[in-house]
Structures are given as structure tokens and as C-alpha cells.
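Lecture 7 notes: from sequence to structure.

We start with a single chain of 166 residues. Read the sequence below before looking at the structure.
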Amino acid sequence: MAELLNQLWSPEAQLIVTIMAIMLLLLYVLCIVWVARDAYSRGAVWYVWAIIAIVPIVGVVAYLLLRPPMMQIDHDEQELEVALKQRQLMKYGECSRCGYPVEANYIVCPNCSQRLKNVCSNCRHPLDPTWNTCPYCAAPAPGKQRKAPQQQSGQRQQAQRAAQKR
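Now the structure, written as C-alpha cells:
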């Protein structure tokens, strides 16, 4: 039996077993490095996953089952796309009466004809209902009259008289 074992365990067989062991050890180390780099690129805590990957086979399988679904760069890109879509939607609004989507420069709702904005009588630009003056031509907004200069000066004089009496 010892003679048969010596024939099977020849120097060539020892060399093959040594090479296989070195290759397995190299594969093991490369798996740990791959887990750490992949976890880092996915935004996970890479050093924790590297420690878990030290457990042979089980650590790598656990990482493959539990790793984050997206790379960090893909996640960031997806967040940017969502922010861009939200920004594009900001130029739209809703009708206060029916909730229909309307653009910022609509004067009436195309669905229910609710008046959304006033129109400047001078330059025909749409005006926000809260504006007193058209920002495009400085004309008073329809329905909002400026006080006459005489009334304003009269009010100032009354305020000055009241201040003097005190």
C-alpha cells in the first residue's frame, strides 16, 4: 500500500496540488476584493462586506443575495432625473376649480373656463391676480386702480397734521 501511495504522490502530483491550492487561495482573495469594490460602488459599507466575505463561500453568497440593487452612480442619476421631471412639472399648475393641469401662462382653464389670470389692458400679457401693476408695461392691473396723486398727498397731509397734534 505504501508503495502504491508513493507512486501516486509523485513530484508531478505534488506540483499540481500545490498549483491548485495557490489558484484557490488567489480566487478566494480576489472574491474578497471584488465584494469590497462592488459594495463600495453600490454605496454600501464596503469594509463590513469585506469582513463578511472572509467567510469562505458563505460570505460571497450572502453578499450576492443581500447587496444593494443599484450602483451608486445609477442611483444618483435616477435622483437627478426625478429632480428634472419635478422641475419641468413646476412650470405647470392646476386649476383651482377643477384641478385640470394648466401652464403658467394660461389665462383661463381649458377645461372649465375658470379665469386664472387677468390680462393687461395695455400690453396684453397675463397678470397674476395678486399684482397691482403690470410688470411688463407698468400699467395698473385691471380692477386695481392706483390712488390719485391728490388723494395720496391729501392722506400724507392728514398724517402729518395728526403727528403734529400729538
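The CA atoms of residues 41 and 97 lie 49 Å apart. Keep this in mind for problem set 3.
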